[in-house]
From TrEMBL:
Peptidase M1 alanyl aminopeptidase C-terminal domain span: 554-885
Entry's family note: Belongs to the peptidase M1 family.
One Pfam family recorded for the sequence: DUF3458_C
EC numbers, comma separated: 3.4.11.2
The organism of origin for this protein: Gilvimarinus japonicus
UniProt-listed NCBIfam families: pepN_proteo
Protein keywords: Aminopeptidase, Hydrolase, Metal-binding, Metalloprotease, Protease, Zinc
GO molecular function, one term: alanyl aminopeptidase activity
Name of the molecule in the record: Aminopeptidase N
Cofactor (UniProt): Zn(2+)
Length: 885
């Protein structure tokens, strides 16, 4: 495997103006005939290399003349043409084997459906091509298949022809009028049912909408359709972006490497991101469908109309599109809740990536395998960078800048430079320093100290920033960091007047400001400050940094109740919990948690929250939830798995015991007979009730247990059903255990024919923190419900165990402490030959070995070495393993 560098980028020697494909699908194989119109762009070209992998070449001709053996050469990476003319038509015929294609990239079969996945470099598994995003072509695609088994034949754009052929076969021809790179190509053939709807665009054009699924799932498409129409309307309203084809289609398939794919006019989705109905889908599932449908739809502009020049620019489309979908979800539900959810994920996982061996800037300078760079850094940190730009410019200028970007680059393949340039041109701001966010990896640390001078009534905040070394660079230059902030006085928020500002400079409500850090150290002085305030810093998480300030616990409790910024109220609750968790972690490390007392300030603060009738119930639920094990681990140089687990467990039990009455009051306040709705307030009410239930089931009374069992048996929605099930399964109370086993069995019995529900059942067990989980996980792999070729099942069992069950992953089995690591390596090695993308992704927890105690680190490392030594390891896994050793 070799490394590819951004600095080596060269424009393509040829354009491919037109692409005509004929894909003839048979049970055992498919024949792909391609007719490509090449135009030279460079001055001369002795050898033209076309990508092509796993293709059996049947014939190759230029301008209808079959090539002689000395005019071309084929190897496992592609086809080289010698001395091609300046302008020519290439005709190729190849055979591919969809049924045997277990990589789920290129043309493959998911259950009975033929489908494609081309991003990033899958088109080369369909035909010989210049498979790079800066080669954009006009595609016409004819699909031929059996009418009986494949009545539905789809590709990008508009259907321009169809008809019947001999022997029960039929065809359809599709033409996409928008030039596009090959990664946006798609085709589908299969026996699919669909729901149809229509959207009228702001300019009055009618767009047909169609969602295709297996017939059995037809009753689970409504939410995706509603989400699609909401997305279309939102993109018009917020970005002025209208849909451009006459039809927009979504197809759902079971076997899919990620969530979904934004192919032009023909999105292909993992069923997990389309199907939803209350009985089978949790609230989180409903929100995921809404978010992913929106994300893929938004790509039509941010990704398809304006695409990436090369794959180093991936965050150009992904960071921007994640930013767009997260604003959409915020608008559809609660913006504070959405922000908290996004930031939690970012801090638990992206910060860890940014501190590990795979750290990379949102625009990487090199890679071996691009599939490994569809990361939380490119996506979520990329979105944070766009968010900072949006906040620096403000809504009006940001909208002008995105308008300019779309208009200027419509139909082009561009870089992140062009995106930032549009922002700079509209705002007149110098964004030179800001662009370091694109080139430097690592999470900046921002340390803040304050000083209050009573005589002069001046208050100062001093910020110092530094960024730890990452593999690509050890000497980081300072970032441009926007810090949104306010000051809390004893009677409320204080007016903010920076030294040098006069009242005329300030808006009427001047209790919030954005301070822009650009230097390693900077001090801001506020005048006319009547008392020593409590600063509320980094409101709304205005930059992806680790900010620290020496708050007293009382300050945190105060911010938690009084900050006007909802996000920072939650943030204060997390910091207070982290401080108390740290007490317990220290006690554990010093010998024992026996007799440990939890700081009553935390309990009192939680009690107040439980009684707060004003606050959004979803926020109460989030604030009552202790930081995740991953986020707690993020706070320490060396991760002590047992200490973290035990401390968190003890706090959970203590909170449950201390607040039992207040928690029960939340159950009583909830009306279980309400019909299900996926609206934000319903979701919020359920989340608070189920958070309370999970606490109560730590040590339930008979009536708590009865409540939980009744909820499990009678729930009218999957959120409540699965919440009750996990409360039963994760309870350590002897009162509960036999009920838990029975409930697990009953749940499977009831839902065994619903693949997505079964996945929940699998992952709930894989995450079970009780000892010897690995034995149960190994048994699940033998269960008839498991399918080792289906990415959703792999994630539900292996992924959930290795990433969602840290105590068991790291402690292994009672007599075999590294069994978890060995299990993962075995699974990766077995999977690598079949589906390298999924295999490489699973390795992640092992790559973090440096963070663990020496014995664990050694054992994890040994498993990485073992993966590295596996015969014929894929480039995907090779890159992850070698970079982390
Ligand atoms: N663009 C696709 C991701 C493709 C991943 C390829 N390994 C989905 C998305 O981000 O919208
Ligand atoms: Zn995307």
């Amino acid at each position: 495997p070799h490394t590819i560098y951004l600095k080596d980028y060269q424009p393509p020697a040829y354009r491919i103006d037109k692409t005509e494909l004929r894909v003839d699908i048979r049970e055992q194989s498919a024949r792909v005939s391609a007719c490509l119109a090449f135009e030279r762009q460079a001055s001369a070209c002795e050898q033209l290399f076309l990508h092509g992998e796993n293709l059996e070449l049947v014939s190759v001709a230029i301008n209808d003349r079959t090539l002689a053996n000395d005019q071309y050469q084929v190897d496992e990476k592609g086809l080289t043409l010698f001395n091609p003319p300046a302008s020519f038509t290439l005709q190729t015929e190849v055979t591919v084997y969809p049924k045997q294609n277990t990589s789920l990239e290129g043309l493959y079969k998911s259950r009975s459906i033929y489908c494609t996945q081309c991003e990033a470099e899958g088109f080369r598994k369909i035909t010989y091509f210049l498979d790079r995003p800066d080669v954009m072509s006009d595609f016409t695609t004819t699909i031929i298949a059996d009418r009986a088994s494949c009545p539905v034949l789809l590709s990008n754009g508009n259907k321009i022809d169809s008809g019947t052929l001999e022997d029960g076969r039929h065809f359809a021809t599709w033409h996409d009028p928008f030039k596009k790179p090959a990664y946006l190509f798609a085709l589908v053939a299969g026996d699919l049912a669909s729901i149809q709807d229509e959207f009228v665009t702001q300019s009055g054009r009618k767009v047909a909408l169609e969602i295709f699924v297996e017939n059995k799932d037809l009753d689970k498409c409504d939410h995706a359709m509603t989400s699609l129409k909401n997305s279309m309307a939102w993109d018009e309203k917020v970005y002025g972006r209208e849909y451009d084809l006459d039809i927009f289609m979504i197809v759902a398939v079971d076997d899919f490497n990620m969530g979904a794919m934004e192919n032009k006019g023909l999105n292909i989705f993992n069923t997990s991101c389309v199907l939803a109905k209350p009985e089978t889908t949790t609230d989180v599932g409903f929100q995921r469908v809404e978010g992913v449908v929106a994300h893929e739809y938004f790509h039509n502009w941010s990704g398809n109309r304006v695409t990436c020049r090369d794959w180093f620019q991936l965050s150009l489309k992904e960071g921007f599109t994640v930013y767009r979908d997260s604003c959409f979800s915020a608008d559809m539900g609660s913006s504070t809740v959405k922000r908290v959810e996004d930031v939690s994920v970012l801090r638990a996982h992206q910060f860890a990536e940014d501190a590990g061996p795979m750290a990379h800037p949102i625009r990487p300078a090199s890679f071996i395998e691009i599939s490994n760079f569809y990361t939380i850094t490119i996506y979520e940190k990329g979105a944070e960078v766009v968010r900072m730009l949006a906040n620096l410019l403000g809504p009006d200028e940001f909208r002008k800048a995105t308008d300019l970007y779309f208009e200027r680059h419509d139909g082009q393949a561009v870089t992140t430079e062009e995106f930032v340039q549009a922002m700079a041109d509209v705002s007149g701001r110098d964004l030179t320093q800001f662009k370091r966010w694109y080139d430097q990896a690592g999470t900046p640390r921002v340390k803040v100290t304050d000083h209050y001078h009573e005589a002069s009534r001046q208050y100062s905040l001093t910020f110092s920033q530094s960024t730890p070394a990452t593999p690509e660079c050890s000497d980081k230059k300072p970032f441009h960091i926007p810090v949104a902030m306010g000051l809390l006085g004893s009677a409320g928020e204080l007016a903010l007047k920076l030294d040098g500002e006069t009242l005329d400079d300030l808006p009427e409500d001047n209790t919030q400001k954005v301070l822009e850090l650009t230097e390693p150290e900077q001090t801001f002085i506020f005048n006319d400050v009547p008392e020593h305030p409590v600063p509320s810093l980094l409101r709304g998480f205005s930059a992806p940094v680790k900010l620290s300030f020496a708050y007293s616990r009382q300050d945190l409790a105060d911010l938690m109740q009084r900050d006007s910024d909802g996000f920072n109220r939650w943030e204060a609750s997390q910091n207070l919990a982290l401080a108390v968790l740290d007490d317990a972690i220290r006690a554990f490390r010093q010998g024992s948690l026996e007799g440990f007392t939890v700081d009553p300030l935390l309990i009192d603060s939680y009690r107040q929250l439980l009684g707060d009738e004003q606050l959004d119930q979803a926020m109460v639920a989030l604030m009552l939830t202790l930081p995740s094990q991953d986020y707690i681990a993020e706070q320490y140089e060396e991760v002590d798995v047992e200490a973290i687990y035990s401390a968190r467990r003890l706090l959970t039990k203590t909170i449950a015991a201390e607040l039992v009455e207040a928690l029960r009051a939340r159950l009583t306040a909830y009306d279980n007979r309400k019909p299900y709705s996926a609206e934000a307030d319903s979701i919020a009410a359920r989340s608070l009730k189920n958070t309370a239930l999970a606490y109560l089931m730590q040590d339930p009374s008979q009536s708590d247990l009865d409540y939980c069992l009744a909820q499990f048996n009678n729930a009218n929605n999957m959120t409540d059903e699965v919440a009750a099930l996990s409360a039963l399964v994760y309870s350590e109370s002897p009162l509960v255990s036999e009920h838990a086993e029975a409930a697990l069995a009953a749940f499977y019995q009831k839902w065994q024919d619903e693949a997505l529900v079964v996945n929940q059942w699998l992952s709930l067990q894989a995450r079970d923190p009780r000892p010897n989980a690995l034995l149960r996980v190994s048994a699940l792999l033998q269960h008839p419900a498991y399918d080792g070729a289906n990415p959703n099942k792999i994630r539900a069992v292996i992924g959930a165990f290795c990433m969602g069950n840290p105590i068991n992953f790291h402690t292994g089995l009672l007599d075999d402490p590294s069994a978890g690591y060995r299990f993962l390596a075995d699974q990766v090695i077995a999977l690598d030959a079949k589906n390298p993308q999924i295999a490489a992704r699973l390795i992640t927890p092992l790559t973090r070995w440096r963070r663990y105690t020496p014995a664990r680190a050694r054992a994890m490392r040994a498993e990485l070495e073992r993966i590295k030594a596996a015969p014929e390891l894929s480039g995907d896994s090779y890159e992850i393993v070698t970079k982390s050793l």
